[in-house]
Amino acid sequence: MISVILPVLNGIPDLKRSINSILNQTYKNFELIVINDGSTDETKNYVSSLSLIDNRIILINQTNKGLPYSLNIGLNHATRKYITWTSHDNYYDKTAFEKMKYALDNNLDSDFVYAGHKVFGLTTRKVKGPQNPRDFMFKFRGMACFMWRSSLTNNIGYFDTNLKGIEDFDYWLRILQVNPKFICIDEILYYYQKGNNTMSSKIIDNYKQLRTLLAKKILNTSNFFDINKFYPSIKLCKDQSRAKNVAYLDFSNQILNSSNKVFAIEFKSIAEKFRLKSTIKHFDKEKEELFNLE
To answer: Is 110 buried (19+), middle (13-18) or exposed (0-12) by CB count in 10 A?
Structure first.
C-alpha cells in the first residue's frame, strides 16, 4: 500500500536508526526503496544484508547523482498506492504510516497529507505544517513528514533535477496546483536531525540563483496565481466580487510581508498586480456612477 523512498549517501551510522524506524512501523504493508547514491562507506553492504532477510527492502545502487535524481529513481520503482520519502539521517514515529494512510483513506477529496516534525540540532524546536495554501506559500517552514497518492506523480511528473536543495518545495507547489486541499495531522510524527554533517542540512552555494529559477518557473506557469485556489471559500460568499477584491488585497499583502525567502523579492511584481486588481474592483462601481451621470 505504501512506497517509501530513502536516498542515502554515506549514511552509516544514522541510516540504521532511520531504517529501524521504518521497519518498526505499526503499519507493515510497505516497500522500502533504498537509493544508494554512490556511498563509499558500509551503506551498500548493510542494506544488502537487510534485503536478504526482508523482501520489502529494495536496494538500488548508482553513482552519485544527487537528491532529486535519486528521488526520481525511487518514483520510477514505486509500485504502491501511496508514496513518501525520507532521509537517512531522520526517523519516524512508529505510528506515522498508519496515521497518514488513515488520513488519505478517509479524505478522498485530498491527495496529500503531512504531519508535524521535531528538529534536533543547534536548537530543538517543533515545526507544524501550513494550515492552508496561503500559509504554504508565505509562511512555509518546511515539511518533513508527508505522504501522497501515487496518482499525483502521474499528473505532475518528477522532481526537477535543476533545483537541488529546493526540489521538494517545487514539487509541493506543483501538487498544490493540482489539488490545493492538503490534510494536516497536528502531531509530531517525524524527527529531523540538523547538523553540519547531515544530508538534511547541506548548504547549497547557489541557493539565491535556485530561488530565482524557481520563482521564474512559477511565474511562467499558466494560471498559477488563480485567486480561487488560494481562497477556495470565495465560492461560498454571497458577494463574490467583493470577496475577490479582499482576497487580491490580502494576497498582495502576504507576498510583501512573507517570511518565505523564496518569494520575498521575486514576487513583488505580482503583489503590485494584485493590489491594482483590488483597487480597480473597489472603484468599478463608483466609476460607473460618476461617468454615467447626465
So the answer is: middle
